[in-house]
């Protein structure tokens, strides 16, 4: 049931679509939506560029041996649920033989679907995984979607408002560079998305109240409720507005990344070696559903002692 009369909220002369109280949900797809960006002033990354190093002393490292070469990643200690789950799956051999089933140039490469191990060429992939999700662990803005970031895939907000992560699927960001002007526009768009998401959660929590008001045809009460929710959203947002840090701006303008995913998907590690292999994978030929035409897989994943 949608919030019939409450279809939009205006904030600072910007209209935010209010996808409210949720009896109707979109189909569950283990993907993240790409944001359309004007690419006229963006530049594709060169292989010699490397992500800036973070203090990673004492962090767990994992080797991913792929059909295109080796990739080493480090897992952040500040995201312990994701770290521990990843280590468990690696030790179980869960990732051995899985395909990189979704590859999008200048965006990311995705893997971790166990259904891909013996998949037929035309099989739709992206929904496989263990019978559990992982609670979101946003360590933002410290960890973000810079080039080389390791992050967890998940179902969309419509079916997953808590933004819990897939139990096994993950992606490595390749991304693109952005100009300062593009980042400023993205900040504004991210702010609107954050407000819309907050409004949706508030409306979902009041689903029964909204349905009762709709049943009575009480449009005045619905409008009053809308205004109350908008005020809560605005007051909450004012305490923690979307603002890219200088480090983010530096990385996104020089190294590149996918800033529109920040704060929405858990970043739990990063590539420390083999980014050239990641770039080799992102440049392979792909067919339908962004799946590589020629299989690219993780041969074996191991913990680096």
Beta-strand residue percentage: 15-25%
The SSE string, one letter per element, is EEEEHEEEEEEHHHHEHE
CA-based shape: globular
Number of DSSP strands?
12
Q: What is the average per-residue confidence, as pLDDT, rounded to a whole number?
A: 84
Low-confidence stretches: 1-53
Backbone CA Rg: 21 Å
Separation, N- and C-terminal Cα atoms: 52 Å
Helix content: 25-40%
Identify the CATH architecture of the largest domain.
Beta Barrel
CATH topology of the largest domain, anyone? Cyclophilin
Structural class: alpha+beta
Topology:
Layout: E1 8-11, E2 14-17, E3 60-66, E4 69-75, H1 80-91, E5 100-104, E6 108-111, E7 133-134, E8 149-152, E9 165-166, E10 170-173, H2 180-205, H3 207-216, H4 219-239, H5 246-254, E11 267-273, H6 275-282, E12 298-304
Antiparallel strand pairs: 1-2, 3-4, 3-12, 4-11, 5-6, 6-10, 7-9, 8-10, 8-11
């Amino acid at each position: 049931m949608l919030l019939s009369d409450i279809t939009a909220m205006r904030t600072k002369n910007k209209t935010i679509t209010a996808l409210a109280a949720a009896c109707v949900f979109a189909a569950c797809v283990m993907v993240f939506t790409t944001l359309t960006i004007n690419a006229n002033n963006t530049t594709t990354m060169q292989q010699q560029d490397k992500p800036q190093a973070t203090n990673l002393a004492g962090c767990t490292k994992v080797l991913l041996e792929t059909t295109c070469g080796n990739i080493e990643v480090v897992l952040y200690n500040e995201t312990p649920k994701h770290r521990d789950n990843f280590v468990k799956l690696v030790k179980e051999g869960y990732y051995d033989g899985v395909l990189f089933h979704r590859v999008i140039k200048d965006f990311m490469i995705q893997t971790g679907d166990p259904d891909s191990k013996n998949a037929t060429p035309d099989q739709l992939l992206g929904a496989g995984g263990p019978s559990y999700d992982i609670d979101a662990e946003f360590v933002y803005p410290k960890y973000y979607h810079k080039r080389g970031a390791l992050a967890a895939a998940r179902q969309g907000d419509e079916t997953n408002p808590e933004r819990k992560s897939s139990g096994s699927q993950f992606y490595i960001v390749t991304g693109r560079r952005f100009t300062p002007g593009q980042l400023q526009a993205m900040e504004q768009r991210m702010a609107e998305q954050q407000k819309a998401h907050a409004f949706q959660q508030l409306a979902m929590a009041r689903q029964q109240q909204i349905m009762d008001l709709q049943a009575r045809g009480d449009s005045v009460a619905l409008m009053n409720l809308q205004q109350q929710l908008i005020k809560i959203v605005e007051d909450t947002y004012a305490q923690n507005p979307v603002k890219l840090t200088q480090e983010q701006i530096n990385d996104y303008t020089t190294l590149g990344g996918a800033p529109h995913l920040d704060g929405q998907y858990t970043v739990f590690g990063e590539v420390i070696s083999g980014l050239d292999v990641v770039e080799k994978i992102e440049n392979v030929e792909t067919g339908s559903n962004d799946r590589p035409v020629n299989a690219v897989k993780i041969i074996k994943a191991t913990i680096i002692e």
